[in-house]
């Protein structure tokens, strides 16, 4: 039976863009499709590449900024005159964004450990992020991430029943500080006798993870992102 709703948006396919400069375009796409299947309720998805200001169409519902090298990605955005269009697109009501790793750095308002000469960010999250927080020598590691948000606790709909998740960290950043109470901590890395390290946050319709859920079988982050999009639709 066709679903009906107050605003008639329910049946329209959801368009999700992935900024395709570097990083895991295909892995994110596959995970989104799998997460959609798990959730059942989400309408059909169209996943599109975003590489040009014209790709930032207003009827795109969500955007993923994948990992890579934040300096390279910001240079790409600058060269292609995408910085302002991207900021505008993100700030338009109803648009949902998720940055992974370098994407987290780009979304943050403040960055420490920047490359010499500084690097512009999009400034969409009230956070201070440290680039390469875990040190240059630790290029990559895997660790258990403690999920703080009940909405992200594992359940069969999200393809996992674990309450905590497996995190793949690749020259990863971390959030040193949140500078607004609007920022919600979604997940941390617990360290014995030290302060927990914040590795996933959300502020309104913007989410960021320091790790790479697209490189694991844990679909909860992609499911959650799709749920954020549906929530925004309900509110409109
Ligand atoms: N530390 C990298 C940077 O500065 C990010 C690494 C990643 O996205 N895997 O952009």
Description:
The protein has 236 residues and is α/β, with parallel strands linked by helices. It has one domain: Rossmann fold (3-Layer(aba) Sandwich), CATH 3.40.50. The chain is 24% helix and 29% strand. The protein has five helices and twelve strands. The chain has helices at 25-39, 70-79, 83-91, 102-107, 220-235; strands spanning 14-19, 45-50, 62-65, 96-100, 108-112, 125-130, 140-147, 165-170, 174-178, 184-189, 197-203, 206-209. The strands form two sheets. The protein has a nine-stranded mixed sheet with strand order 2-1-3-4-12-11-10-7-8. 42% of the residues are buried. Mean pLDDT is 90; it is low at 1-7. Bound molecules: glutamine. The site of glutamine (GLN) has 12 residues, from helix 4.
Contiguous helical run count: 5
Which shape, going by the Cα principal axes?
globular
Can you give the mean pLDDT?
Answer: 90
- What is the string of helix and strand elements? EHEEHHEHEEEEEEEEH
What's the gist of this structure?
With 236 residues, the protein is of the alpha/beta class. The chain is built from five helices and twelve strands. The protein binds glutamine.
